[in-house]
Write a structure and sequence with these properties.
about 110 residues; mainly beta; seven-stranded antiparallel beta sheet; about 0% helix; about 65% strand
Length: about 110
């Protein structure tokens, strides 16, 4: 059985602000929204594989932006439960690359 060869080279630099806030509400609850706008400079992106299924589309070299927004919600700090929701769009400014993402998490302290 032959082992197929593959090589990956990636280089990126990410920069930009994140804005967040904390809003307290009754019974020690907390709502923490955030928004982030990142510039991403991809300066190396090479992928080679003999296996056609491993070659996945990636962002081209150059500059693009990523927007992410979301919140953490803690109904009661004493209960130790937090719900986190966020969504993102990567590829702003790059006509050939677009990635959407959603994350939902539930944390419970014991």
């Amino acid at each position: 059985m032959d082992i197929q060869s593959s090589a990956v080279e990636t280089g990126a630099f990410e920069f930009g602000p994140t804005i967040n806030g904390t809003f307290e509400h009754g019974d020690d609850g907390r709502f923490q929204p955030f928004a982030s706008l990142k510039g991403i400079w991809t300066f190396a992106n090479n992928q080679y594989s003999d296996n056609e299924f491993e070659n996945q589309p990636q962002a081209d070299t150059g500059v693009r932006a990523r927007l992410e927004m979301g919140f953490d919600f803690t109904p009661s700090i004493a209960a130790g439960r937090t719900v986190s929701v966020s969504g993102s769009l990567d590829g702003l400014g790059d006509d050939d690359y677009e990635v959407w993402g959603v994350s939902i998490r539930l944390k419970q302290k014991f």
